[in-house]
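Why do we bother with holo predictions? Because pocket geometry can differ from the apo form. Keep that in mind while you read this record for (4S)-4,5-diaminopentanoic acid.
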Amino acid sequence: MIYSKSADLFERAQRSIPGGVNSPVRAFRSVGGKPLFMARGEGAHLIDADSNRFIDYICSWGPLLLGHRCPAVLAAIQEALEIGTSFGAPTEREVELAEAIRAAVPSVEMVRLVNSGTEATMAALRVARGFTGRELTIKFEGCYHGHVDSLLVKAGSGMATLGIADTQGVPQGFAATTIALPFNSIEAVEQAFRTHGDRIAAVIVEPVVGNMGCVLPKAGFLEALRELTARHGAVLIFDEVMTGFRLARGGAQELYGIRPDLTTLGKVVGGGLPLAAYGGRADIMQKVAPVGPVYQAGTLSGNPIAVSAGLAMLRQIEAHPEIYATLERLGAAVTAEVPPGVTVNRAGSMFTFFFTPAPVTDWDSAKKADTARFGVFFRAMLERGVYLPPSQFEAAFLSAAHTDQDIQATVAAARDSFALALAA
Ligand code: HOZ
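The structure, written out:
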């Protein structure tokens, strides 16, 4: 394939934007080559600036559960444009979206709309601290909760991709409020509660991790988090920015039957526009200003265009519950053929091919993956028209717009690409 227009745009971008990108993983640094600049999306496909067509497994890093330019979402955006782009005042649609979120995720008794997943986790943590009067947070190594200062400790996603252990610019005092433990280790959480129990405000977890690649919770892990937090008076926060409305309409908490105290949502809930949310138990959410003393605000929060897109997305999901069976079937098919030397992890429409023969259950096992081989695989897939996340440590996403034909083409491309990567 020829990527000359993307290459030119990348040269130009680097003169004005750090690294030429507005989010680090997009720079392709860990897989080699240069990022593609996109011109257009169509269902499950992306067309780049050089008119190359790809089957898209990033789906905007998760939001596009129904594919690019879903007609119902586009129609809602068009309609919203007729009334104005921003009011900085409440609208009826915000109430409808809040009600739609509550209907889908019953643990969310009250909800506040924000603009990004980072804002949602930052606010949820602040509310948990305000509610408990405590300061410490438990997070898990390889989990990523946005670029919140105190949570950029042993974080996944771009930090894992770029090998940045601890980012500069975070005051030591902020990082010291975070205890990072191995994902899936109940013993480590028990030990932390034994040592610091009455100082722990919250445990925050991606119930199915997407940010060290896709990693599933072991049986009993989420249940143990629920039990330990309840016993010690700490707030359990499920970061469902990736999994919310994706693994089930009610997210991972519906799938695993756990009711967290607070939930953060992003990506799908905004229908592809910048919108996120945090919510949960009414007694905790009543701490949020103006009702309570925990401050959180935003000029564009509840933006009418984003709210309309999110509402249209949630209504489509409600009207088409069969999409989850479709996504499960497509997910099983796209990951069915994996050669020895590669481990595949999948939860519904999220998956990762890890270039390691051993099971991947936490960050220690994820980082054993051979990232050089992943780079060869990634580039070979790209040449064959398949656009995967450009990092061993990001989950791939399917949409309901992917067809059986897309999956067959992907499996055929993967057969060749696995062979090339494993021979490298
Ligand atoms: N950190 C995001 C996914 N884990 C990537 C966001 C982006 O580059 O758009």
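Residues 23, 25-26, 61, 144, 157-158, 211, 394 surround (4S)-4,5-diaminopentanoic acid (CB under 6 Å).
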